[in-house]
Write a structure and sequence with these properties.
- Residues 1-28 are annotated as: Disordered.
- Helices cover 38% and strands 23% of the residues.
- With 853 residues, it is an alpha+beta fold.
- The strands form nine sheets. It has a five-stranded antiparallel sheet with strand order 1-3-32-31-30, covered by helices on one side. It has a five-stranded antiparallel sheet with strand order 2-29-28-25-24, with no helix packed on it.
- Helix 4 (374-383) runs antiparallel to helix 5 and helix 16 (563-572) packs across helix 18 (590-603).
Length: 853
């Protein structure tokens, strides 16, 4: 098939033609001209009608010939039917029988392989013929013809043709379509539907625009399915649905009725209709009136896809078709037929046949590429790679990359390489060299393959040299991101060293060189650079490669860089660098030594015990807040040495603690009262020691100091009787807040009384509850059976002869005895205790017994 020129629906005029192209929507259909044998036929003759089967086409001409064609338009059979125009050709579903009618009244129905059938000449033109869809399989061989009347032909049991008039009197029959048991036809008045199974006419759809000549603007009929008929006439389209009538409503009415579900007007005259899923394909005859002239001209026919609505329609797409001699054609000269097996639509005109088909994924990609929408084309190809036939995903991707490079969007082009080039090493290397040629190696560097799939080392080295020449930061990034196996490490180390000769203090190059040394397992060289730069990765390097032997003489440098990390690392690896070695290195840096020993002490109070004496001075010098906690937690520091240091530095709190720990509590209390003058701390100290003599000293010292007396009155109520203090207060002494202090003493006393009463109530309630629980427990029955034994004689508790009298004693503790096995009663008459539980000194509840006989 040859492609046919297609003109999109004209849009509003715009001065910017490129803008109009960009806004153009993708067409829904593609068009090809049917040629081969058709071309030769239409050069000498003109097409008048055509019908389509899944296997072949049947074309009728104005000179009375019928041609059977294959899908490509090649002639397979030719029939000389008449010398005048063929009006209609009808095929049954099997494609084995054909019905033909012509303008001179000839009607022929015959088998394509037998030529046997019906041949008749009428005295008027026969416009239409339609075979029963199951004509080949049916015994009745039914078909209809239409001229001035609609006739039904069928064979009777004698194998003779029987004729029935289905309709007459309303002018010529111009169209007929048979689907299943329903026959639809059009005449000058409207459209009728006949049910062949019930032999009833079920509807009459009247023609809307009666001003149009029916022979110039014929009716278009098309069955969408077995119950849906599409009617187009003039500029009007109606969709009719055949429905079953409710049996209760039938009476004398047909069993079926027709409901018009959609009716709307179109802009142009309808030449043909066909279904497309839930949409319609409409062929329009268009007349134009250029520059408001009086005379109208025939324009290109239009093929539209429309979405029917109840009272209107929505245009989905619209194409103007350049068919041969379109300026000479009228509305009746065009036909639209479709193939139900495929979405193929044939536009027939006297001198041309055009095939429209839905665009496939290849067509969609063609359109996207033509519009330079490469990314969408690539995405569409990737999604439908199994269905596309004319395109290759990689070639589309390469076109996209070329387009991006031409635009100057090098980074996007490089990013697409990763997806498009895949594992094709040759394409990768070609692209790298192309990016080098245009000076854009940096753009493609981050997208090069670096996993299992790798290029030649020279490719990576070329890019690294480019970065080293122009961008140190970018070079460092690539060294960090790229595995060292990609390139020759020694060559890159040498290149970096050469650059450092010109710029020896460049931290970026030094850091990168350290990373290269690390990859090359020259860790000592890397460590030197990291320490020189005070780089944060130095600790990670030491841990990862166990470089502790290399840092024994660099401990001060490490701690100067980051004390916390250095100390944590040294303490975590004491087995590799001993505490003594660390102390030896830090002896000249006491502030660093203190940090190390302090963390060591926090981890384990006993590990660095031999340095505790030294730590006293270090804490006193660099970290006094932690001196007192150290003195409290350490059991190895010499108290005399600590006391001497604290007294020299006048550390009162620490001195008080040491004096109390050494047993000199009175001196400690005296320091609190005299030097700190803190009554609260003195009271707290006295509470901690809980010594009556200390309380006496505290009262004696405070008795002539009113603020101290107030503090004592407020705090000693729970440790010392306040009366002792009150009796010793001199008469006439003014004491601040005395009333409040006395009220507090009374409140504290009342609170103590309330607490005691509350505790007493709780104790009594708990005792009663437990007594009741014990009583309920002891009142429960105890199961006695042959499995129980006497705890004294160890014989079965129940006798073998239950008829004889016997006595059993069961205690609340669940021990059981024969009555005769019990020892003599105790001192309390009538009360016996279990020997076993009494021996174990259990409570009295386990001894009370219960006699059972």
């Amino acid at each position: 098939m040859a492609e046919v020129e297609e003109v999109r629906k004209p849009s509003e005029e715009s001065t910017d033609e490129s803008e109009e192209e960009d806004s153009e929507e993708e067409p829904k259909l593609k068009y090809e001209r049917l040629f081969n044998g058709v071309t030769e036929i239409l050069q000498k003759d003109a097409a008048s009608c055509m019908t389509v089967h899944d296997k072949f086409l049947a074309l009728g001409t104005h000179f009375g010939k019928v041609f059977l064609l294959d899908i490509q338009g090649n002639v397979t059979q030719r029939f000389e039917i008449s010398s005048v125009k063929i009006n209609q050709i009808s095929l049954d579903e099997s494609g084995e029988h054909v019905g033909i009618c012509s303008e001179d009244g000839k009607v022929q129905v015959f088998g394509l392989y037998t030529r046997e059938g019906f041949h008749e000449n009428f005295d008027c033109p026969i416009k239409v013929v339609a075979l029963h869809p199951q004509f080949t399989k049916s015994n009745y061989k039914q078909f209809v013809t239409g001229g001035n009347k609609l006739l039904l032909y069928e064979k009777n049991w004698l194998n003779r043709w029987k004729t029935s008039v289905l309709h007459e009197g309303e002018g010529s029959i111009t169209n007929v379509q048979w689907r299943a048991n329903l026959i639809a036809w059009a005449n000058n008045v409207g459209v009728k539907i006949y049910d062949i199974s019930t032999k009833q006419r079920i509807t009459n759809v009247l023609r809307d625009n009666v001003s149009l000549r029916p022979d110039m603007y014929p009716c278009s009929l098309c069955w969408k399915d077995n119950t849906t008929l599409i009617v187009g006439w003039g500029t009007s389209i109606k969709i009719c649905v055949v429905k079953e009538r409710n049996p209760t409503e039938m009476r004398d009415l047909p069993s079926r009725y027709v409901e018009i579900v959609s009716a709307f007007e179109t802009e142009f005259f309808i030449s043909g209709l066909a279904p497309l899923a839930d949409q319609l394909v409409a062929l329009y005859f268009v007349k134009e009136n250029p520059d408001n002239m009086d005379e109208e001209f025939c324009a290109r026919p239009r093929l539209d896809i429309i979405q029917p609505l109840p009272e209107s329609c929505e245009e989905i797409s619209s194409d103007a078709l350049t068919v041969r001699n379109f300026k000479d054609n009228e509305c009746r000269d065009y036909r639209l037929v479709h193939s139900e097996g495929e979405s193929l639509f044939y536009i027939i005109s006297p001198k041309d046949i055009v095939v429209a088909k839905e665009r496939d994924q290849d067509d969609h990609i063609d359109w996207l590429l033509a519009k330079k929408k490469y990314e969408e084309a690539l995405m569409a190809a990737e999604i439908s790679f199994k269905n596309i036939k004319r395109h290759d995903v990689q070639k589309i991707g390469m076109s996209y990359i070329n387009h991006l490079v031409e635009k100057g969007d090098y980074h996007s082009a490089a990013r697409k390489c990763q997806k498009v080039l895949g594992k094709n090493m040759e394409l990768w290397e070609n692209e790298v060299y192309r990016f080098k040629t245009i000076g854009q190696l940096k753009a493609i560097s981050q997208y090069l393959p670096r996993g299992d799939l790798r290029l030649r080392p020279a490719i990576y080295e070329m890019i690294l040299h480019e970065f080293l020449r122009t961008d140190y930061e970018g070079f460092a990034t690539l060294i960090r991101e790229w595995p060292g196996e990609l390139y020759n490490n020694n060559a890159i180390v040498q290149a970096v060293t050469d650059h450092l000769k010109r710029d020896p203090t460049n931290s970026t190059l030094l850091t990168t060189l350290a990373e290269l040394y690390t990859y090359d397992q020259r860790y000592d060289r890397a460590l030197e650079i990291y320490l020189r730069l005070r780089h944060k990765d130095v600790y990670q390097l030491i841990h990862k490669h166990n470089l502790f032997s290399s840092i024994e003489d660099k401990i001060v440098l490490l701690m100067d860089f980051d004390r916390e990390k250095a100390v944590d690392m040294l303490l975590d690896n004491e087995d590799k660098i001993s505490t003594d070695r660390v102390v030896e290195e830090l002896v000249d840096r006491p502030e660093l030594l203190h940090v190390y020993l302090h963390k060591l002490f926090k981890r384990d109070h006993h590990k660095g015990q031999k340095y505790h004496e030294r730590q006293i001075g270090l804490y006193a010098e660099y970290d006094r807040p932690n001196l007192l906690p150290f003195l409290r937690d350490s059991t190895h520091c010499p108290l005399e040495k600590a006391l001497e240091i604290c007294q020299q530095r006048n550390f009162v709190e620490e001195t008080v603690f040491l004096l109390s720990r050494m047993g000199n509590c009175r001196r400690a209390l005296q320091m609190i009262m005299e030097e700190l003058e803190d009554v609260d701390k003195a009271i707290e100290f006295a509470k901690e020691q809980d010594d009556a003599e200390l309380w006496e000293d505290l009262i004696s010292y405070s008795i002539d100091k009113p603020p101290f007396i107030t503090g004592l009155l407020n705090n000693i109520g729970t440790h010392v009787d306040p009366i002792l203090l009150i009796h010793r207060i001199k008469e006439g002494m003014e004491i601040p807040n005395l009333r409040d202090s006395l009220v507090k003493i009374l409140q504290d006393y009342n609170l103590q009384i309330l607490l005691r009463e509350g505790c007493k109530k709780i104790l009594v309630a708990d005792s009663l509850s437990l007594l009741q629980k014990m009583h309920r427990t002891q009142m429960r029955g105890v199961r006695v059976d042959e499995e129980n034994i006497c705890e004294s004689c160890h014989a079965t508790i129940l006798p073998s002869d239950m008829a004889k009298p016997f006595g059993v004693v069961v205690f609340h503790c669940r021990h059981m005895f024969h009555k005769e096995c019990l020892p003599s009663p105790g001192t309390i008459p009538g009360v016996q205790f279990c020997n076993i539980c009494s021996a174990k000194r259990r409570g009295p509840g386990s001894g009370i017994l219960e006699m059972k006989k």
